Amino acid sequence: METIFERPHALSDPQFSYCPGCTHGIIHRLVAETLDELGIEGTTVGIAPVGCSVLAYDFFACDMVQAAHGRAPAVATGLKRVMPDNVVFAYQGDGDLASIGMAETVHAATRGEKITVIFVNNAIYGMTGGQMAPTSLPNQVTQTSPYGRDVNTAGFPIRVCELLSTLDGVALAQRVSVDSPKNVRAAKKAIKKAFEYQIEGVGYTIIEVVSTCPTNWGLSPTDALQWLRDNMLPYYPLGVYKDVKAEGFANIAEAASAKAACLAEGGAR
Amino acid sequence: MSDKVLMKGNEALAESAIRAGCRFFFGYPITPQTELAAYMAKRMPKENGTYLQAESEIAAINMVYGASAAGARAMTSSSSPGISLKAEGISYLAGADLPSVIINVQRGGPGLGGIQPSQSDYWQATRATGHGDFHVIVLAPSTVQEMADYVYDAFDLADKYRTPVMVLADGMLGQMMEPLVLPERKTSLPEKPWAATGHRHQRAHNVVNSLHLQPEDLEVTNIERFERYEVIKATEQRAETYLTEDADIVLVAFGACARIARSAVSKARAEGIKAGLIRPITLWPFPVDTIERCVDTARAFLTVEMNMGQMVDDVRLAVNGRKPVEFFGRAGGIIPTPLETLARVEALAEKVGAAAPENVGGAN
Ligand SMILES: Cc1ncc(C[n+]2csc(CCOP(=O)(O)OP(=O)(O)O)c2C)c(N)n1
Ligand code: SF4
């Protein structure tokens, strides 16, 4: 019998530790398929964050390094500087990337570290049991915003792709979702593109994946997908926020110097 | 061929690290160690290495974590407030058994403190470089030559025991210039089959990690690590002694303070007081065996430190109540003088009946 669908080789055997209906699993699969298709499993080093995906080092079949909460971009920097010809990716949640690790994120992006960041935005802290994240929506009820996130006291959610796309070191910043088969296919294309850009040395790449946390949102898996569409996508619009190659540049250095020239002439952006 | 050169302590640390095979340096500026970073920035590109100014000490130590995970010899350096920020990363390095070298050119504290030399991070270095059950090997140079020698050894010790190693210096050593002979360049470095370098389908996938969700598993890793620490204690204790064989008053001092204590010992001897000096070189493991060899003959011990009294605890533990142990120190960045140290030696000698008889003074 012909096999037409199987587990990606770059995913190891252990059963995922994710809750039923959690989209972390889909995102893992897309990354693993990418490693398979690009034939880079043997030269890739992945970084597991602190969060529900902390055990990612057991799930991916490539070499893996577990990092302290938020420090994955710095760890990735160390790895990539030692092994410029290897592929390095960091897998990070929103608490990890946009809260405790915001400085490391902004600076790795600014430096144009040639790494790929898979950023899983589920608008909440999953692993520690549903506290407010920097990406939690206004009025969103969480364990630590029990009356709903009050922007007057807790501030506003951070839109990471919009923020990072202002930085010269970023080659690709794209927001995708995995809430529907169509969006899963688009997410896969984006993830693959990010790894390809890394291999070509274009610059820092980040794919933000709008994801669900049925457990801490207190919703069934299907209701969670609907909540994502109704609440998250309007606040976090899907799309490409920066793509230097689509703008006609080979890498971040070319794009940055074109921008600097434009600014010197008093040009708009 | 040996290279005799005149260098600042901070620069000696940097050049020697390069000769030891370190090609990855991640730092963040802080007085009084900044010359080290500046030296690395100048030299690393010429050595095909990487100098990277991180956005913070936290990022710098985590870059070291990444570079060490990839099997490279990597180093970071800072001074006291910056080392506090590195605490998290040092704990992770220890937890993941990653060799690495951390330099602390200490200044006075706590808080922002001052920028003058100090030894007030002794407790932090030997007791609590981060959270959890672990130690780092701590080496304490007292000359510019030793800045070069110990950092060179630090990389080998780190690889041998798969542990972070700290070189604990102070602002005085960092800033002073002395002639030194630089070590030979290393031509080969140890293999690291555990490193995360990409498995290339040649081996199982490597994981560098410090998480053990099962308490039994975590306990096993801690027990194994402490077994390694026992080996380190048995084989790596280092200390230098000066006139301790017949000493009534044994001074104990490390780093820059040991130079001052040594002058005080010579002055005391000139007055007929039988003083001697133990200079711990490894602060962890603490050279308890050297202390032990002096306990029977000594009448009292005196630690001399640039802090409020930190190493004195380790000396008391080693002496274990058998002889009096006193402390003399200056804090805040003040360097004790040989004469004030001598005054303490005289007072202690008087107290324990080891003072020279009035009319005999001036032996040797
Ligand atoms: C220094 C530190 N602070 C806090 C924690 C506790 N902690 C573990 S996971 C987590 C939040 C993770 O949330 P997120 O990054 O959004 O990932 P998710 O679990 O939602 O996938 C926190 C705060 C920690 N491990 N280390
Ligand atoms: S807690 Fe939320 S994010 Fe974590 S595995 Fe469960 S559903 Fe997924």
Any key phrases for this structure?
heterodimer, A: 269 residues, alpha/beta, B: alpha/beta, seven-stranded mixed sheet, five-stranded mixed sheet, 12 helices, globular, binds thiamine diphosphate
Q: What would your notes on this structure say?
A:
The complex is a heterodimer of chains A (269) and B (364). Chain A has 269 residues and is an alpha/beta fold. In chain A, 40% of the residues lie in helices and 16% in strands. In chain A, strand 5, helix 8 (181-200) and strand 6 form a beta-alpha-beta unit. In chain B, helix 4 (80-95) links the parallel strand 4 (74-78) and strand 5 (100-106). Chain B is globular and about 80 Å long. In chain B, helix 3 runs parallel beside helix 4 (80-95). The model of chain B is unreliable at 359-364 (pLDDT under 50). The interface between A and B is large, with 36 and 40 residues. Strand 2 of chain A pairs parallel with strand 9 of chain B. Bound molecules: thiamine diphosphate (TPP) and iron/sulfur cluster. Iron/sulfur cluster is lined by residues 18-19, 22, 24, 52, 122, 126, 213-216 of chain A.
- List low-pLDDT spans of chain A: none
Total strands of chain A: the figure is 7
Structure class of chain A = alpha/beta
Summed over residues and divided by their number, the pLDDT of chain A gives a mean of 97
Largest sheet of chain A: 7 strands, mixed
Number of strands of chain B: 15
For this structure, the quaternary state is: heterodimer
* Greatest interface (CB-CB under 8 A), with counts per chain: A-B, 36 and 40 residues
Trace the largest sheet of chain B across and list its strands.
Answer: 3-2-4-5-7-6-13
Taking all Cα atoms into account, the compactness measure Rg of chain A is: 18 Å
Give the neighbour order of strands across the main sheet of chain A: 2-1-3-4-6-5-7
Mean pLDDT of chain B: 96
Bound molecules: thiamine diphosphate, iron/sulfur cluster
As a percent range, the share of strand residues of chain A is 15-25%
Helical segment count of chain A = 11
Structural class of chain B: alpha/beta
> Which H/E pattern describes the elements of chain A?
HEHEHEHHEHHEHEHHEH
* Terminus-to-terminus distance of chain B: 39 Å
Distance between the first and last residues' Cα of chain A = 57 Å
